[in-house]
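Key idea: predict the complex, not the pieces.
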Amino acid sequence: MPAYLDNNATTMVAPEVREAILPLLADEYGNPSSMHRLGGQSGMLMEQARQKIAAGLNCDPDEIIFTSCGTEGDNTAIFSALEAQPEKRHIITTRVEHPAVLNVAKHYERKGYDVTYLSVDSKGKFDMDQYRTAFRPDTALVSVMYANNESGVISPIKEMAEIAKKHGVLFHTDAVQAVGKIAIDLQNLPVDYLVLSGHKIHAPKGIGALFVRKNAPFRPFMLGGHQEHGRRGGTENLPGIVGLGVAMDLAVKHIDDENTRVRAMRDRLEKGLMAAIPDSIINGDQEMRLPNTLSIAFKYIEGEAMLLMLDQFGIAASSGSACTSGSLEPSHVLRAMGVPFTFAHGSLRFSLSTYNTDEDIDLVLRELPPIISRLREMSPFRRGDEGLDWVDDHDH
Ligand SMILES: *Cc1c(COP(=O)(O)O)cnc(C)c1O
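Result:
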């Protein structure tokens, strides 16, 4: 792909990660639980990887459990906290979580739990007063994402975790989009559970990690063998684990680049598009935002049409729609932010990584404005001249 700008969806496997994994797909195939030399070698590689993850987050290696993905980590954290406190039947989470959290909350709601979904303002920020007053004596868990995958908006996680701690309530954060972009220091961040995913930080798909703080309750979500000290059954995904360790080292190494060069590229893209394309808005707070993410909306356009046309120029981005059940509804995140209907449909998300170059940005700045002009000329909704003007504050 000439210009891959969809890194919040998934990332390229880093060459260093690929190199580290390849031998494990050839001769080094031992089971870490085996007593022979091949197994011992695998076990050693696995523990080295665990140490790298722990070093990247500043926690103890024993506090890291390998999972199959971010989704499993989120499910496990929530399940653990609720199973360990069966008498507590209230959860606090937010309207803008990833489905890996949102659908777990909905599942427990159907089982009779009360769930408070914190709302966000038009910039994607939480109402902290709503948060402070949401706690109840039977609140079991708070689950708030560290940074939003669509808008890039960063949550005040430290402040929110401290408030939960004051109430004696467990705190989980989905940090899948934060790792590698925001420095994480678990000695200075009072969360009980934190989740990351390999394929969002240049490791392969199918590997993730869950931090569980010492003394935080834990109940295995995956029952089976004694792997991970009985905390997660199933023979370990050694290639994934080793790849994740290398990716974590790289994520720490690249964090400055993400916050300087990558941020500058994102800002140039944002300024260039805003200047070239009238009737465009930025979704989400521009200050408290991941350095790699730009969610931008163009009035009177269908996001999917833009994506297809960009794709012809080798530009990969994503839209702000959740293509569920065949209808192109604006995503739950944009709806929660109250992005006007006429804009929400024309939302694009560009998400960069350390592997992007200035040429990628030049390509988008050259190709997107004429695409928008063409689509707007074809749009029946453009000026309402056919009596079809979309209502701005359509109830959604
Ligand atoms: C991608 C993502 C997930 C899910 O991770 P998988 O490894 O794909 O299961 C969860 N939360 C956020 C914020 C994400 O961006």
